[in-house]
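Colleagues,

For the teaching module next term, I've prepared a clean inverse folding example: a structure given as tokens, and then the sequence designed for it. I'd like students to try predicting residues themselves before seeing the answer, so please don't circulate the second half yet.
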């Protein structure tokens, strides 16, 4: 069965002038990466609901259109570069998270093993309630140490993957700049 291509999702962005889209603190004379934080936040907040691999169309309504040339290529390049960089950063963050998860898992497994061996040794010392409490406490503490690696591998990576997908969708958006009203 063939899947129909989903219809593109449209975002309309209205700005007074082109400079509102770009970070005025960017030291480079080119608008290749640095979008203004507010413009970026607006675009990203809209795009959070975009399904993965959706086609995004971004129309920038520019009230004061430059007289010399069409700014579509400039804006397109800036948006694509900016969100490509964000996707790359997200991939590095995800890689770092999994590295941290693997290290945490090794530490957690070593710690739980030590706790279980110590609990077993305490259990061999006697059967009084103090020994039982110490043995059970070590068992619980050992397994609680596994909480962080499990959190990393089960839950923490999903939001990063979603941000990467959102950035990739925006990095491939079809951008158009039109005269605003």
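(Answer key — instructors only)
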């Amino acid at each position: 069965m063939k899947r129909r291509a989903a219809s593109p999702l449209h975002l309309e962005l209205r700005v007074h002038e082109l400079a509102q889209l770009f970070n005025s603190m960017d030291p480079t004379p080119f608008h290749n990466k640095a979008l203004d934080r507010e413009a970026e936040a607006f675009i990203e907040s809209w795009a959070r609901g975009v399904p993965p691999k959706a086609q995004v169309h971004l129309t920038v309504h520019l009230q004061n259109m430059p007289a010399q040339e069409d700014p579509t290529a400039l804006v397109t390049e800036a948006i694509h570069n900016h969100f490509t960089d964000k996707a790359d950063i997200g991939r590095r963050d995800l890689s770092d998270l999994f590295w941290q998860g693997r290290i945490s898992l090794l530490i957690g497994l070593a710690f739980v093993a030590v706790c279980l061996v110590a609990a077993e040794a305490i259990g061999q010392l006697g059967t009084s309630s103090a020994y039982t409490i110490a043995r059970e406490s070590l068992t619980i503490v050992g397994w609680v140490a596994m909480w962080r690696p499990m959190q990393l591998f089960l839950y923490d990576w999903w939001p990063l993957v979603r941000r990467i997908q959102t950035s990739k969708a925006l990095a491939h958006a079809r951008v158009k700049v039109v005269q605003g009203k």
